[in-house]
Amino acid sequence: MRVLAIDLGATSIRVAALELEAPRPALQLLHRWQHGPVRQSDGSLRWDWPRILSEVQRGIQAGLEAGPVASIGVDGWGCDYGLLDRQGRLLEMPYSYRDARTADWRSIAERIGVDRLYGICGIQLMASNTIFQVAAHDRDQLRKASKLLLLPDLLVKDLTGFEGAELSNASTTALLDGRAGTWAAEIVEEVGLTKGMLPEVIPAGSTIGSWHGIPVNSVGSHDTASAFVAVPGIPSARTAIVSSGTWVLVGAERPAADMSERSRVANFSNERAAMHGIRFLKNVTGFWMLERCRTRWGNPPIMDLIDAAAEVTLPVPLVDVMDPRFFAPVDMEMEIRTAAGLDADTNRAEIVRSILESIAAAAARVIRELGSILGTPIEELFVVGGGSRIRLMNDLLCRQTGLRVTVGSSEASALGNALVQGIALGRFRNLDEARRWAALGVSQPKPASR
Which of the following is catalytic: 223, 331, 343, 395? Predict the structure, then answer.
């Protein structure tokens, strides 16, 4: 029972295969395409959707050539969307959430009412939120649009013709009622949408169409939802989870949403999990900072930079990675140097070490907040995602938190995507069974370092 997982990342598009009947999970990466938003002639920052679709199709074709396929699933980054006309055609290339058009997002939040917005949607307020992107969208284009689809759902539409909004991703938009799991009509209308422009909200784990006769199953279409599925074990009430990549998502699984004033002030998100419950988490700026510096330095191998940073023995200054100045600066290296007070002759190894130490410190701070809100001390940490392959980063998380760290898959989004397909296909009875199988490929936990 072999499935294909399409994982749309904001820095790379991946298509992977997983044989669900194997003794232990062995994800096979079939195709990867590095990409990023493209600056347009009008200054806007957008995604090259035709190229993304083309690369996905290349990956699917590679999967078919390698053997039979029982199912396909799609996950991707959140916030961004495409607008369709009445014929179902894309009106324009989708904007990137890092486009400057949302610079005035705070005034929009205040107009709607910060307390009111959180009380309805329960989502961490950030410039990138779909709600603020829609509020800033050209009104003429919105009036021409018949449908708004989040990007993973847009890809499903391109593959199958099905138009829907998978729940885990819809819940991140700040347009969904956090308790009811349906579109929040009063909020939707305040930013210029009609309820009819938003598709039916659907759960993960069901067949929604087919591509050339191969079933396409809904999965946790938000990549973090899929990553949380593939954690290296079954989380307890004392487990924190870090999905480490462009963003570092720090949180825990909860049975129900917490939209209390305490959670609002701490700016935690109540995002729906792929199968059940809530991903209670906070977005922390992550390896985006390193990637932007790396681009400026001519793209040297990332592990060379990490290895050099590991040799730094003297303390380095920290920066607040949550500061908006790091969201989309023109020159990330200069922004970090300025914020950290680093001299012009500070070498790259120290800059990289400062970035990693700062990310770890921010994650540890969120974990302390998490334990305080939950009223239960956090005792273990599961780490997944692309950043989990960086041993130095895991060591820093261990040191900063004092927790036992278990490292899972570096391709957790694709793995979680495949696991949910396995549930839909009947390979696994439930999420716990899927997680137990996935954990067979996990190394032993790293003990806390104090």
Answer: 223
Count CB atoms within 10 A of the CB of residue 111. Answer: 12
User: In the chain, where are the structural domains located?
Assistant: 2-223
Which residues, given as ranges, of the chain have pLDDT below 50? 444-450
What tens digit of pLDDT does each residue of 230-264 get?
999 999 999 999 999 999 999 999 999 999 999 99
Q: How far is CA 195 from the centre of its chain?
A: 25
- Reply yes or no on whether 258 is catalytic: no
User: Global pTM?
Assistant: 0.94
CATH code for the part of the protein at 2-223: 3.30.420.40
